[in-house]
Amino acid sequence: MTEFFTAHQNLIAQILGFVAMGIAVTMYQFKKHRTILFLMSLCSLVWSLHFACLGLFTPVGMNMLNIFRCIAYSFREKKWAQNNIIPAVFVVLNAASVILTWESAWSILPFIAAIFATIGNWQRNTRLLKYLSIPVCGCWFVYNIVNGSVAGTLNETFALISIVIYLIRTRKTEKKECS
Fold it and tell me: Given CB 3.0 to 4.6 Å as the disulfide criterion, which of 48, 86, 106, 128 pairs with 123?
């Protein structure tokens, strides 16, 4: 079994990446913040497996922390989860994760992405969350190109397209409602 995994490690990584990509592309089509966060958690778990197969541990750390961040944020209506210190805690945890898993100067890109995602996911406004997801996608796009994640590069391309489609689609709906 170990021999099979070793021989097909990159293929397995890319397959996992494509599964995560499918989740990522569809999650931006939902309106409910909690649904988006649940799908982001699932997506982060699969991305963690993808990057672990590629031997890239900075994004594994970022994605694992993202799971916990999404879980915490999904309970935002609860009193304990409304404290504005929560996003700051996740930024600090991401900084610690980057320091502990530092691979190269490119490791800064997942950290920048994590900061934007932390701020974006904290927003109650789904439209703002999607706008703040644009620089997240940009950072991951570059990181994935540099580190040979074909699925990751395609994911960010499709995620950006999905975000733009949602923003255009809802803009037309908002204009009709205002008329």
Answer: 128
CA pair distance 93, 109, nearest whole angstrom: 15
DSSP assignment letter at 105: G
| 106 within 8 A of 146, measured Cβ to Cβ | yes
Read off the tokens for 101.
């898993």
Instruction: Determine the Cα–Cα distance for residues 131 and 162; give it in Å rounded to an integer.
Output: 12
Contact 137, 152 (CB under 8 A): no
Q: Dump pLDDT digits (tens) for 136-175.
A: 999 999 999 999 999 999 988 988 888 889 889 887 666 6
> pTM for the whole thing?
0.84
**Closest alpha carbon to 40 in 139, 121, 157, 124:** 121
